[in-house]
Amino acid sequence: MGSNVDVNDRNGDISGIVMSCPKCGMRHQCVCEMMTPLDNHFDLLLIQHPNELARATNSAKLLQWRLTRCASFTWDRRTPPEALLEIINNHVNPVLLFPTPNSQPVSSPSLTQSDALYIVLDATWQEAGKMWRQSPWLQALPTFHLDLEHSSEFTLRRNQKPNSVCTCEIGIELLKLHNQTEQAHTLSHSMKHYFAAYQADRSGHALKS
């Protein structure tokens, strides 16, 4: 697939065409160079609402770019992907990171010391609730939640729920829980740089050095 273009000159002058990076989507600064793989010591499975795939502010792409043990599937209410169900059914300890009345803190030693498969719903809170309610196979999983004392640094959207974090920040917290402090710091730095680059790109200019 070729690069996307932004035509600013209505007279057809090619000097008015700004090419977008086909991977990161940036027009004025490419961030692909800093998206080298990071080894994570746990399995992460993202289940994405179809609406999330079209949102330029989606932060899950940072986990998909950087974490080596990260898979993603698109949620389908009627026919969940067979490959997704196979991964869940064949894993020894699949858990859903989603707050419910019976969910436990994700910092529970019984979880962080085991070979867990963390399943994250990549969606708005309203959409995630719909995904959980309409998916019996998700409701059958044990649920855990993050218990954070700090606020989110996600600046591209308004938080829909107090003390909520974006999908990328969930990945950062999981790295910390598995004592991968350096990787968590690196991913956090990449996230902040991407947020700043996205906002600058949206305004039509490159980041100031």
UniProtKB/TrEMBL annotation:
<keyword id="KW-0819">tRNA processing</keyword>
<comment type="similarity">
    <text>Belongs to the TDD superfamily. DTWD2 family.</text>
</comment>
<feature type="domain" description="DTW">
    <location>
        <begin position="19"/>
        <end position="203"/>
    </location>
</feature>
<dbReference type="Pfam" id="PF03942">
    <property type="entry name" value="DTW"/>
</dbReference>
<keyword id="KW-0808">Transferase</keyword>
<dbReference type="InterPro" id="IPR005636">
    <property type="entry name" value="DTW"/>
</dbReference>
<protein>
    <recommendedName>
        <fullName>tRNA-uridine aminocarboxypropyltransferase</fullName>
        <ecNumber>2.5.1.25</ecNumber>
    </recommendedName>
</protein>
<keyword id="KW-0949">S-adenosyl-L-methionine</keyword>
<dbReference type="InterPro" id="IPR039262">
    <property type="entry name" value="DTWD2/TAPT"/>
</dbReference>
